[in-house]
Specification:
The chain is mostly beta strands and 210 residues long. The protein has one domain: Porin. Helices cover 4% and strands 65% of the residues. The chain contains 2 helices and 10 strands, in the order E-H-E-E-E-E-E-E-E-H-E-E. A hairpin with an 8-residue loop joins strand 5 and strand 6. The relative contact order is 0.27.
């Protein structure tokens, strides 16, 4: 849900810390894929080196992704209003990453992660009488592993591209077809599904060393 690094392959790797920003596309697996479309979102992470173990870093990653969004007309107090709905999840994980650092520009790495994922939906309208709604559905433990490559762009900045497999335990989340009636789509208590939340995650981002 699944991270990146900079200067870990050159003098920046004197840099003891790194801050990254990634764009992510997830590919749901198993029963999860039957209920949600391809989630997309962003993550930020912070990594710090372990000085006694060259190439090894630890840190945290947090992010948000949206797997469904819709806008539709809805009858409210005898008049038609426009509603905007988004189904999303938050991800948060502890990360351990090892950079092989065997080249100056191309720096492959492997990483592992463990954390959680939390699902929620929002229902918004510009109508003054309509009270915006937020609904939380559930959280579950998630863990995974992956790898990638960091490509130095300049001394303190690297492009980070990676692929990770994430395993999520069972939890509740919302899944409503766009073709469903507006009364159903406008009810955040409807369309609740439950399954494992496994997915493959592809990321591309930038990492800044300091």
């Amino acid at each position: 849900m699944l991270v990146f690094l900079t200067g870990l392959f050159y003098s920046p790797l004197s840099a003891q810390s790194a801050f990254g920003f990634n764009f992510n596309i997830a590919n749901p697996q198993g029963a999860y894929a039957e209920n949600v479309t391809r989630p997309m979102g962003v993550t930020i992470n912070y990594l710090k080196d372990i000085q006694k173990l060259k190439g090894l870093y630890y840190g945290v990653e947090v992010g948000v992704a949206m797997y469904a969004a819709d806008e539709y007309d809805h009858d409210f107090n005898g008049k038609t209003i426009k509603l905007s709905e988004e189904d999303c999840y938050l991800s948060y994980a502890a990360v351990v990453r090892y950079h092989f650092r065997d080249q100056k520009i191309w720096n492959p790495y492997v990483e592992g992660r463990a954390g959680g994922i939390s699902y929620f939906s929002t229902l918004l309208s510009n109508e003054n009488d309509f009270e915006d709604q937020n609904k939380f559905y559930g959280s579950t433990f998630s863990y995974g592993f992956g790898g990638g490559i960091a490509v130095r762009l300049c001394e303190q900045v690297a492009l980070d591209v990676g692929l990770a497999k994430a395993y999520g335990l069972d939890t509740n989340y919302r899944s409503v077809e766009k073709t469903a009636p507006a009364d159903l789509k406008g009810n955040l208590d409807a369309g609740i599904k439950s399954s494992r939340t496994d997915f493959l995650n592809v990321k591309i981002g930038v990492l800044f060393g300091f």
